[in-house]
Each structure stands twice: as C-alpha cells, then as structure tokens.
Request: fold
Amino acid sequence: MKKIILAAAAFGMLTGAAFSQAPNFDDPAEFAKQRDQLTAAFNGPADQPYLQYAGDSMADTASFKKEGPWTVCFSNAGVNNPWRVVGYTDMTEEVKLHPEIGTFTHVDAEGSDDKQIADIDDLLAGGNCSVLIVSPNSTAALTPAVEKACAAGLPVIVFDRGVTTDCPVTFVHPVGGYGFGIQAAEHIIANVPAGGKVLMLRILPGVDVLETRASGARNMFKEAGLTVLGEEFTDGDNAKTKSIVEDYLQRGTIDAVWMDAGATAVAAVEAFEDQGVDVPVVTGEDQQDYLQKWRDLGFKGIAPTYPTYQWRTAIIAAVNTLKGEQVPSPEWILPQPAITQDVLDQYINEKMPPLHYAMCGCEDMPNYPQAWGGTE
Amino acid sequence: MSAQSLPQATSPTRRLPRINPVYVLVVALILAIIVMNPAFGEPTGYMNFLKRVTALAILSAGALYVIVSGGFDLSVGSIMTLTVIGSSMLASNDPNSTYWIIPLMLGIGAVIGLINGLVVSYLKVPSLIATLGMMITLNGVAFMWSGGAPRGYLPDTFRFFGRYNITDVPIISLLPIAVICLVVFGAILWWGMHRTNFGRMLHAVGDNQQAARLAGVPVERVRISAFVVSALTAVLAGVILGGRAGVSVDIGSGFELQAITAAVIGGAQLLGGRGSVPATIAGALALEAIFTLLNLLGLAQPVRLVVQGLILIGAVAFATYQRKRAGR
Reply:
C-alpha cells in the first residue's frame, strides 16, 4: 500500500519533472535553514512539543470565529502505512479532547490524487464544514483543490506534505526532510573513522520529502570524506533490504548504514547479526522495533523522527482558528527531535506494537496506550 | 537445390543432449558469481543464497501445479502477506503460539485454495480473474486485520524456519533450516507431480481438458486440488519469508509474478500440460542468481532493471526456441 502511494507520488514527480522544470531536491539555502532549525529554540510549552512553533509570525483568525458545535472536515491522503496509522490515531484522540467539535468528518483518498480532489469537492459541495484540514497526497496536484476551498471562504489547515499556495491559514509541519538526513548523517560522521564506507538505503526515488533526506546526507558524507558504497532502493521491503545488505557484506566491510526511513532498519541490522558480523552504525527512525533492537544489541544507533504529533497539531490549529485565536502562520514549524543513546530508554515501551512511532506526543492522552494498540 | 535441402530436413541433425536450458543457465550464473566474488564459494555465501531463494522456490513449485493444469494463481502473493500479517497478529509475542498458528494458517490456505478451485471449476470464472479477485480480497483482509500497522512480532519459534542455521555441520559447516525445508518440500512436490497418478492427470487436464474428461479424469477435482496445493505452498513460503525478514505490511506483493516467471524459465508451458518441479526450482534459483550477479557487478539500479528484464525475456525466448527445434 505504501508502495502504491509512493509510486504514485514518484510518477507525479517524474512526469512533473519531465514537462516543467526539474524539482530542486538539493537546495543549499533550505538545507542551511533546516540545519539551524534543528537546534533552534521553539516557542511554547516545553513538555508539549505538539504546541511548540518556530518564529513569531502569527495569523489573525478573528474573521473565522464561529460558535460551536463545529464540523471539522479532514481530507486525508491515506492511512496506508504505519506512520499514517499512528498519526491518524493521534488525531482522532485529539478530536475527543475538544467538546466544541460536534462532528469530525474524515475522508480517505487511499493514496490517489484524483480521489482526494473529488473528496475535497464533495466536502465543499456538502456545505457542512466549519474548517477543512488537508494532508495532501502530492503537492502540485492538490494545490488547485486547496485554493478552491480557500475561495469558498473556508479556513484551511494543511499539514505533512505542503501545497504551493499560501491561502491556507497555516501549514503545519516539522522541520523537514533535510533535517532528517542531517541528523542521521551527523551521527554517522561522528562515529565512523575517516574514509569510512557508508551504504545508503532508500525506499523509492522521486518523492520530495525522501529526496531531501538523501541529498542532505549525501552532501555531508562528501564533505566529511566518507565513501558512499551505494544508494539502493528497498521499496520498503524487509526481505529485499536484508538481501541488499548481505550482498554488500560479501563484497567487503560496511562501516555505517544510513536509512531514509526506519521501517526496514531492523532487517538491515539482522543482516549483520545473521552473518555473525558486529553491527556497525545503523540509523533508523522512532519505530519501537528498531529502538528495542538498538538497545538489545547495543550498536551505535540514532533515530531521527518525522513526529506523528503533527497530526494533533493540525486539529489544535483548526480549533484555535474557529475560536478566533492567533495561529503560527504561514507555517507552523514543529520541533523535530532525534532520539539519541542518552534518551533511548525513555522512548522504549515494550507494551506498544513494533511499528508504533515513539515520537507521537500522545502519552498524555486519556486513551493511551490502548487506542494505539498497546497494553497497560 | 531442393533435393539437397530435403535430406537435411529429414535426417536428424546432431542434437544437443536433451537437457533443460535452465540448468545450464543456473550453472553459468553461479560460476559467474563465484568468479566475481570468490566468497560466494564459501558456505556462508551459497547457503545465504539458498536461504534467500527458498520461499520463492517452494512457492513456484506449488504454483506450477496450477500452471500445469492450465490455469494461473495470482493469489499466492497475497496469501503470503496474509500468513505473515495474520501470524504476527495472532502470536502476540507468545513463543508457544507457533505450534497452533502454522497449522491454522495452513488450514486457512487450504480453504482459500478450495474457494479458488471451486470458483474456477464450477462458476467457470477464468482462473486469471478468479485469483486476481482473491488477491485483492486477501490484501484487503490483511489490511483490515492489521489496520495498516501490524501489532505484534513474529516470535523466534516462528522465525526458526526462515532464519536459523544449524552450525558445526561437517563439510558444509552451516545448514540453514530453510534449506532443509527447500529439499523436503521440493521432494514432496516433485513426487506429487512426477510420480503419482494425480500428477499425470494434472498434465492431462492442462494438455487437453476435453480429452482428459473423455478418458475418465475427474477434471474438476484435479483442478481444485491444484489450487489447494498452490495455496498451501504459498502459506509455507509466507512462513519462511516472514521468518527470514520479519513483518512487513506488503511482504508478498510481486511474488505471484515471480513464481510464474520462475516456472516459465524452467520451461513450463503457460497454457498447461507441461512443466517440471526441479526445473521450476532451478528457474527460481536463476531469477535470484541474476539479481545477485547484477548486484555484484555494481551496476546502478536502473541499469540492473534493464539488464534483468532483457535476461528474462532472452531466457524464455531461448527455452521456447529450443523446445520448438526439439519438436516438442
């Protein structure tokens, strides 16, 4: 399922690239900006990362103020991978915290641009929405649909992937793809001897948030004088990942494995384990299975995150807008912490499912952990 | 002039010994891999390779039953996914659960195969469509079951079959459990196809259904059994692949086509009536060897895909040409 959405996105990017200008996945200015944001101070309560924001530019939403109960409409790109499953749970739980929300309408585009455009049309035609939240399936295709919703006078909140219009009230997202790549690459550079060999494992080419992760890391490896053994695409498949790492191991040593997403990190680690080789630096993401493997084997891991708590923030932004309160705008940039060795234990929870994303900011919610598939 | 060419056409020219070209292909690929990478000749090298190929080999040998009977089974990949997802959901991290989960999964597989067979035989839905529908349905079931994010690990007792090696074995030093599975199930499937009456009836049905019926073959029962065998091997392949690599939400996707490809490289005839279990297993080895070899050459991924596609077409075209020349 994840493959289909990524393939669709990749296809969109490829055709887009062929017929317009090539999208820029290697932008030094954006790279530098995100690098600064990783360590910048964020406004807002320290223990509630989903309420924090970078910068102090705010939007005045007094014109959208409305008496409850509200109908919050959400057009979702899909719930077709574990990250989105966790995020969507964060969101539905957040909705329950706001009694002013009378109805929460969720439409799932199942990873299709066309369906999502039609979904948004249907929501507008229904005329019941007080606010529209959009998690776009792809940037270019969904921009006109979002513009149409703005033109209809609805407050619009966009999150996760962006659109190329600033008509929404705000665009909620964490620091970004370069930031993710930087965190993993910095850890590798710090822990591998000069001239060390790095294998880069990626899901698929052509998707903006993944391309920026790779280009950020690639530049840093080059600068640091590390050798990139290869960039391989795993399709997010564990078996393929394991085979790729085994093949590279037969040809020589590997000092580090850099991953653009953590779903197959455990398979990469197992390839070393089963070969009877010491596990080198293997980067991952905040899934429980990787965090636990990292603790159990004691290799040098790091888990950059693309926090799922942004799904909560989208609801909070919608609620604040309908209350007429100020909202960080045009972007609500959330912190994007990496889980390092020092804080590893506090993110591990063996009662949670293996593909639960630890950086969910959801531990303080009433239905945690059952709603996320965990046990007390 | 024609007088000169005539005897040439009738007199049997010196033929190569009738050896299935897939075996030549596998040997050539393996030799090429060893030349490129001598470490492959070590037990860890080739045993890892065999371990990797086991799931596909067993799956292809099972899918061959349906192909020989004149059908297609596109649902096998989704059965593998369902097996892995279902097992991880049911196991809930309890190592003792493996003993009832694997039989349960085999039971589910048998039911799926039975439904496939009944739909094809009695509702007369073409197997391509019937199993495509089953594939979509099962992917949906697996997705519903897990909600998109599996909620459990596969316990080590389950992963035993796909992951663990017996070490300190004389001569070969290590022996993966998966390789034992490959030999055992390969032998059973070979026996069923080539040494039983059922196997002969399978060939007869695929070759000419009408003739087989007139000769007294219970066509429906034979075809249904073929789908059941195929579904059962898909469950076994799922257990082994899940054991090797762990839980993924779409672990089996693409395997249905790889299985058919392996059978065709092994010389199976797509519309039925011809096919060999050992040659199909060799076809699976060849597929995986092509993959490994291209990896070793260090070609960029796009180039590898192009070369891989061309080798596949070439191998099948060559096999077909050989068969035609041999007049079979």
